[in-house]
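Batch 3, record 17
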Amino acid sequence: MRKHNAPRGLRVFGLVTAIAFAFPGLYLVWRNFTSGADPLGLLFSNQTLQPLWRTIYLAGLVSVSAACLGTALAWLTARTDLPFRKLWSVLLPVPLVFPTFIGAAAFIRALSPGGLASEWLTAFGVHHTPQLRGLFGAWLVLTFFCYPYVYLPVNARLKQLPGSYEQTALLLGDTQPQVFLRVVLRQIGSSITAGTLLVFLYTISDFGAVQLMRFDTLTRAIEMNYLARPPISFAMSLILLALAAVVVVSERAASRHLPDIRTHRPQHALKYELGSWKVPSLLLVIATFAISIVAPVAAMADWALGGTLRSDGRPLTVSVSKIVEATINTLTSSIATGVVALLLITPIAFLANRHKDRVGKFTHGVVISTFAIPGILIALSLRFWTIRSGFIGSFFYDSMALLIFAYVVRFASLAMGAASVAVNAVPTALHDAAATLGADRRRRFRTVDVPVMKPGLLAAAGLVVLSTMKELPISLILAPIGFPTLTTRIFSSFEEAFVAEAGIMALVLVTASAFLSWSLVLRRSDAL
Amino acid sequence: MQRVIILISTTLILLGTACGGADRFEIDGLAAEIHSGECAEKSDELVTIYSGRKENLIDPVLRAFECATGINVEVRWGKSAELAMLINEEGDQSPADVFLSQSPGPVSFLEAKGFLATLPQTTLNQVTPQNRSDAETWVGFSGRKRVLVYNIDELGPSDLPSSVFELTDEKWRGQVAIPATNGSFMDWFTVFRNYHGDDVATEWLKGMVDNDARYYPNNRSIVEAASRGEIKVGLVNHYYNYQESAAGGSKHRAQNHDFDDNDIGSLLIITAATILNSTENVSNAQALVDYLLSSSVQQYFTDQTLEYPLAANIAPNQVLPPLAALQIGSVDFDSLGSGLDKTSRIIESSGIQNQ
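Prediction for the assembled complex:
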C-alpha cells in the first residue's frame, strides 16, 4: 500500500478533534483521581467481575446476532428481487430511533406474557410465550434495536459494489451462495465489522434495555451509585471505557486482514433472483419488522389511544403546539448534528485511511471508544470543561453549539466506520489519473471522491441523525433552558406514568424518523 | 423539503405573533385553577429552577407562580440524581437558584457537599419537623406513600399482609417485586435502617432475597408488571397506580394496598425544595419555595397529582388513604446524605439485583 503524505492542516485538524473527543475520557480519569476511586482494585473484585463478564457476554451475543440479521436484511433489500424492497428499506432503519427506556418497555408491554400479543397468540394456539427478562430478554431487544448499525452501512456498501467480480465468479461456475461467501462477503467484510463494533459498544453502554430486562450489567452499578458511592460509578465507567478501547484496537487489528475493495466506477450493482427463497426471505423481513417495529409501535399506540379515547378523568397534558415545538427542536438539532459529524469525521477518515496517518488512526480510536461512555458522563464532562475554560466556556455555556458538540462527541463514532469504508472505496487509480490530467486536489475531491463516497457518507449521517433524535441524558443536561426535544418530553411523561402522552409523542418520533430515513438515506443514495 | 420549510416558518410566525406586545403573563387550564384572577405585570426578575419533578405535574404550578408574582421562571427538567450531579459539577457557577427533587436523597447529597443555603424559619415552619432538614436547608412540599401494589385478578384485599415483614413468609415466595436500585426505594431503605437498625433491615432484605423476591428497575415497571400478572405484588410509591389506572381504565388490573399505619412499609417519601448557596436571586427563590407551600398549590398537588399535601393544613384528597402514625412519628430523612453509601453496599451485597 502506497503511503500518501498528509497535508499538515489535516493533521492539525485531526489532533484538535482527538483532543475534543478526549474530554469525556480525561474527565473520567480526573474524577477517578479526585474521588479517590480505585479502578484497578475494583476491576478484580467480585463486585465488578461478574457484571463485567455479563456485559461482555451479552455484547458478544448481540453483536453476532445483529451482524447476521443486519447483513441478511441488507443483502435482501439491496441486491435481490425481494417484493416491496423500497418500503422495507425505508422502514428497517427505524428501530434506531426508539429510546430504550420506552422502547424496551413497549417491547415488554407488547410481547411479554399477559401483554398485547398474548391474546392474539392464544387464538393461534400459542399459550405460553417466554417471559422477556434476563439474558434472553436483553439479547432479544438489543438485537432487534441494534441491527440497523450493521444494516445501514452494509446496505450502502452492497449497492455500490462493482458487479464484475460477481459476474466473473458466476461465469466460472460458482453457485449464488458460493459467490456470496467467496466474493461478496469479503468485499463487505469491513462494513460488517465496523457496524458490529458499534453494536458491541452500544450494548456495553446501554442502560435502559438491560435494566428493564433485569440483566445485571456494569451500567446498573454505575447508575445506582452516582450519588451513593461516586468513586464506584467513576471507576466502573473507566473500566467500561478501557474495555471499549481494547475492543476498538482488536477490531482494527482484525480488519487489517480484510481486503479494501475499491469501486471502479459508480455503477449498478448486480441483482439476484431469489427464486424459491422468496417466501422464506420475505418471512424473515416481515418477522424482523413485526418484532422490532410493529410490536413496540403497537404498545405505544395502545398507550396513546387509551388516553385519547378516555372520556373521563384527567385531560391530556400535551398540546399540538408543544408537540410541534418539540418535533422542530428534535429535527433541527439532530440534522445539525448529522451535518457537523460528517464534516468532522470525513477528514479524519481521509487521514486514517487514505494517508495511513498515525494522528488519524489515533483520532479514529479515540472517537470510536468514546461511544462506550454513558451519555450522562459526556454531558457532565462537557459542563466540567466549559466551567473551567474561562471566557470560551462562558461563550458556549447554555448554547446550542455546546449541545450539538456534545451530540457529536456522543454519536460521531457511528459515522466513523461507514466513512472509513467510503474513503477506502475510492479507487486510487482514478485519483492518480485525475491528477495526471491536471485536476487539483479540490477538483479531485469534488469529481472523484464525493460521488464514490456519497452512499456511505449518507448512511453514516443517517446513523448519527436517527441516534441523536432519541438521545436523552445529554439533551436533559446540556440543552439550552427552554429547548425541549421529543425524547425529553417522552421521558418526563413516561417516568410519571403519563403513558398516553408518552405514547403519542413516541409515535410522532417514529413517524419523523421514518420520514427522515426516507428522505435522507434512500432517495439520495438511490439517485446515484 | 419545501413543505417542511413552509411548516416551520408558519409556526415561527405564529409563535412570534403570540408573544408580541403582551406585558402580562397569560395562563389557562390547570394553572388558572391554581391562580385565579388577573396576572401581575411581567418584571425583569428571574428564577432558574433545576427540577427533578416532571413537567407534566409541576409546570402548571410554575406558570401560576409567574402569573401571581410577575417573576419569570426558567426550568431545566431532568432526573433528580443527575441534576444533583450537575450542580455538584457546576459548583458556585451553577445558574440554578432552586432545586426541586423527586426524593430526599439528592438534596441530602447536596447538603452534605455544602451547596445549599439556609431557608428562613417562616418557610421551614410551614411543615412538620420530620418533613424538613435539621440543617434547615431543604423543605418537603408533597409526599408519596409507600404501598404494596397487587394484581386484582389474583389477589383480594384479605389476602394481603399488614407489614413488609410478612413478605419474607413462604406464602410470598417468588411473588414480590422490589425496585431495589431506584432512588425512592434506596431512600426508604435508608430510613428503614435508621428506624429498625441495620441488623433488622439487612436481615429483612436477605429474607426477601431468600424468598425469591423479584428485582425491577423502577416503580412504573412494577405497576405495569402487576397489571399484566407477571408478578402478584410489588413495593412501590402509591402515585404510579393512580396514573396507570387513569390511563388504562378497567384494562388496568392492579391496585394499591396499604400496610398498617405504623409499619415502615407505609412511610411517606417526600419531594423536596431547596435553594442553592450560589444564587443571586435569593428573594425570588424564596418566593418560589413559599409558593409551593401555599394552600392553593398544596390543594393542586393532592387533587391533580394525587400526592399528599405537607403544608397549609390542606387535607389529602378523599381518594387517598388517610395518613397516620409514621408520618407524624419518629422517622427522619436527615441521615440520608451519609446513609446512602451504606444502603448501596447492603443492597448490592444482598444480590437482589440478580433476582
